[in-house]
Design goal:
227 residues; mainly alpha; MYOD Basic-Helix-Loop-Helix Domain, subunit B; 11 helices; DNA-binding; protein dimerization activity
DNA sequence: TAGGCCATCTGGTCCT
DNA sequence: AGGACCAGATGGCCTA
């Protein structure tokens, strides 16, 4: 395990980490050498069905009022020989789909295309989320998996909320003109999440440095030890 | 080779 | 009726 993996593993709260490792194992965190973002093959290989649809039912794609109809084609790799779902195989080899009336088949393909666009939009949103999460975006680092992206985003939001609350309390404290050396009252955790906020005001000084948007600050948010 | 992750297809359900 | 959303199934790619 390299340093990057360790850092990311530290980012997950204990309960979340336990849950993740139980459900998905450590690979749920999306690390592994050699897996590079934007690796060959792309995320959206061209399926023969999609190819068919782009030529046959492009009109229905536009009818959805979404802006992604062109994007879909851009993502596809016509050279990718990968085959997709069983239904397509059935279709290709004269399966159930090909036995359906032409109208039904057309409708099914249209529905498939819509679903594909929907999932692409969802993935675009996830990419947007990844882009604002402070983790290593280096090409040599594997892209965060979907589940890891969501969990890190949750941690990041909680961390930011807590940092904001700490800052507010500090400002309020300073405005009162009290001595900085007197103990700062135990902060009330925002959003009723006291159990997941290990920080106290006394830890603010050391934590503040690490709230600079670096991955480490996010990674350690929910560790037992503050910062 | 097993397991993780992912894209796609599909049928069902709900909503407008 | 048509579209959005969802979950299950399936199969490919990649890594340990």
């Amino acid at each position: 395990m390299n340093a990057g993996e360790e850092n990311l593993l530290k980012s997950i709260s204990n309960d979340t980490l336990l849950d993740l490792t139980q459900r998905y194992g450590q690979s749920a965190f999306g690390f592994g050498p050699g897996h590079i973002t934007g690796s060959p093959g792309g995320r959206y290989p061209l399926t023969p069905a999609a190819d068919f649809l782009s030529g046959q039912t492009g009109k229905s794609n536009e009818s959805g009022g979404e802006q992604t109809s062109d994007d879909d084609d851009d993502r596809f790799d016509p050279l990718d020989p990968r085959k997709r779902g069983s239904a397509f195989d059935d279709d290709k080899h004269g399966g159930p789909l090909s036995k359906k009336p032409k109208e039904q088949r057309s409708l099914r393909l249209s529905i498939n295309a819509r679903e594909r666009r929907r999932m692409h939009d969802l993935n675009d949103a996830l990419d947007g989320l990844r882009s604002v999460i402070p983790y290593a975006h280096s090409p040599s680092v594997r892209k965060l998996s979907k589940i890891a992206t969501l969990l890190l985003a949750k941690n990041y939001i909680l961390m930011q909320a807590q940092a904001l609350e700490e800052m507010r309390r500090l400002v309020a404290y300073l405005n009162q003109g009290q001595s900085i050396t007197s103990p700062i009252p135990t902060p009330i955790a925002p959003f009723g999440q006291a159990a997941v906020y290990p920080f106290t005001g006394s830890a603010l000084a050391t934590c503040a440095e690490k709230y600079s948007g670096t991955p480490a600050s996010l990674f350690k948010q929910h560790n037992d030890k503050p910062c």
